[in-house]
Amino acid sequence: MKAALLKSPGVMELEDLPRPDCPPGGALLKIVACAVCGTDVKMLQQGHRDLAYPRILGHEIVGRIVEIDRACGLKEGDLCQVWPGITCGRCGPCLRDADNRCRNIKIMGFNFDGGFAEYMALPELSLSRGANLLPEGFDPALAALAEPLACCINGQELTGVSEGDVVLIYGAGPIGALHCLLAKLKGAGKVIIAEKLPTRIREIEKHTHARVIDLSNDQSINQSMDRSNDLERIIQSETGGAGVDVILSATQEVKVDSSQLRLLAPGGRICIFSGPRQGFYEEQIDLRSMHYRELMIVGAYGCSSRQNRQALELLTTAKIRADWIVTKRTSLSCIEDAFSHSSQRAGLKSVVCGV
Q1: Rounded to the nearest 5°, which phi and psi values hold at 9?
Q2: Neighbour-count burial of 91, counting CB atoms closer than 10 A to its CB (0-12 exposed, 13-18 middle, 19+ buried)
Q3: Per the confidence metrics, is the pTM higher than 0.85?
Q4: DSSP structure class, residue 265
Q5: Which of these, 185, 304, 192, 307, lies nearest to 248 by C-alpha position?
Q6: What gap in Å lies between CA 24 and CA 75, rounded to an integer?
Q7: Whose CA, among 147, 222, 285, 337, lies 20 to 30 Å from 314?
Q8: How do residues 180-209 score in pLDDT, each as one tens digit?
């Protein structure tokens, strides 16, 4: 089979590899769509702490079952979206529907081969917990957005986004766009998005009712804020001086520090969603302010299989309309174009589509 094999940072080559066998109790999938995540781009460019080489990347996966080794309600020919976690199914987090926190979790495309290939083996537990049947005729590229949307569900559950909240999202890329759509579905009273790329600002303004703050300049978001405090003044104006209820960071360029706390209303919550870039890991936080104003900072990483199923249901029932987020489709033979589209931020989401 053809597969895009990452051999080391900066070296990914399309190779002929043996087609994997159907695992005992599992299934063999023919990949129909696999979307490019920002983490895939990072792994290609500089590696990742959870990555083992050589590796087939890709964890936003849709495939058709061509062989199956158990009776589980799915059958050969079924089209499935795949939650990429491979878990033990026995530990406390797994039993509490928080299997993304499994002590022994493995992730497809990180420490198990993923979806940038013609075929992929699906282990037994992944088949039962993470293979989600799709309606025939549903766009596989759109279904590939289920996993990143599920990650947004995780972040918004942790921060309790709810009716009437004012939500500030940093970044209008694919994750920022999905956060925006989800927050509105949850009943947010106002969604504010801070972004500096004109192409992404245009897409958000065209497809959502979010209030967009244009941060376009050659500096990082925080450098811009430190220079003029323009964002803080805009937020105060937009909220009548009350501040925002939730901040979601959909870019690694946000420094979560005491300047962010000043944007929050009492009881406000910050979600560290995107991994902060180097130099932003350790910051001074005003704990006294957090205490007296009952503020909260939470981290969110990945998603559970439950959240993945919920995200897929939102997409397949059109409760969330996200087809506009897919701005590039390529074949596996042109996977470099998909990665280039994502790394250069030429649009929003790129998807590698099978035959």
Answers
A1: -55, 125
A2: middle
A3: yes
A4: E
A5: 192
A6: 15
A7: 337
A8: 999 999 999 999 999 999 999 999 999 999
CA–CA gap between residue 66 and residue 28 (Å, rounded): 6
Phi, psi of 39 (to 5 degrees): -65, -35
Distances (CA, A) of 176 to 75, 113, 219, 305: 36, 27, 19, 21
| Tens digits of residue pLDDT in 225-258 | 343 368 899 999 999 999 999 999 998 888 888 8
293: left (phi over 0), alpha (psi -120 to 50) or beta: alpha
CA distances from 172 to 139, 181, 182 (A): 23, 11, 13
Distance CA 278, CA 113 (A): 27
Planar angle of CA 65, 67, 70, nearest 5 degrees = 100
* pLDDT 10s digits, 4-62: 999 999 999 999 999 999 999 999 999 999 999 999 999 999 888 778 889 999 999 99
Q: Identify the structural domains of the chain with CATH numbers, from first to last.
A: 2-145+322-353 (3.90.180.10), 149-299 (3.40.50.720)
278-181-99-84 Cα dihedral, nearest 10 degrees: -80
